[in-house]
Amino acid sequence: MSLISIFALSALVTGAQAYDPNNRERLAHEVPAEIQGVGIDEKLGVFPTLGTEFLDETGKTVTLGQYFTNKPVLLSVVYYDCPSMCNFHLNGVLESLKQLDWTAGRDYEVVAVSMNHRETPKLAASKKKTYMNAYGRPEGEAGWHFLTGTEENVQKLTSEVGFRFKWLEGSQEYSHASAAIIMTPGGKISRYLHGIEFEPKTMRLALLEASNGKIGTVLDQVLMFCFQFDPSKNKYTIYAMNIMRIGGGLTLLILAIILLPLWFRKQVPGNPA
What we know:
The chain is an alpha+beta fold. Helix content is about 40%, strand content about 20%.
């Protein structure tokens, strides 16, 4: 693994705040020049341009909008010839999604876009084949997409989602951060999951939140009500206020079940008070 990748991975595993290139004190003392100006600016609520064109792994011209129908979308900005971090990121996404009972294509879409405009659909196809073999769900292959694009369109998308990266001529590789970007079926950025490993519970709740109830069971909806995303921990934590609301509602329900029959009995003539 290159020195650049080691610095980047170290920053990522300590949390999104540790990798903030706007932190001037940290830049002055710890961040090497190779990753200065590199990072992720969260743009929650933003709608990237869905008409931006790319090539899919078969070489066909597609638009981002083709993958936004009635399902949430997980977007990853990587490059397929990356010697280290992109593989760790995609591996982390894969392992998390494999532990969900939801399947790509049926319940959500996964879209990987190469930041390297020099890469080709042939390389993208090879990458997809590798990950589909590891995914182990043939029916889910239609839900994974590996895209390449022109420099102009790559820069447009990465700018819109807040993904800042740069090419390092000396090492002939890109310096970049890592995050799974969760988007709604309508194309709005809903959540950023930073890093290269993703707890299945966090991934599930992020997709559920983005879907606005279009996927998952009633129990999932209850869980979503009870958890709230904590950016400092990069995961969902119990939301005490909503737990109290549920508890209060159950208390009122139990009281109603007990007291209503007594009240009706009083209303019937001839019944003892």
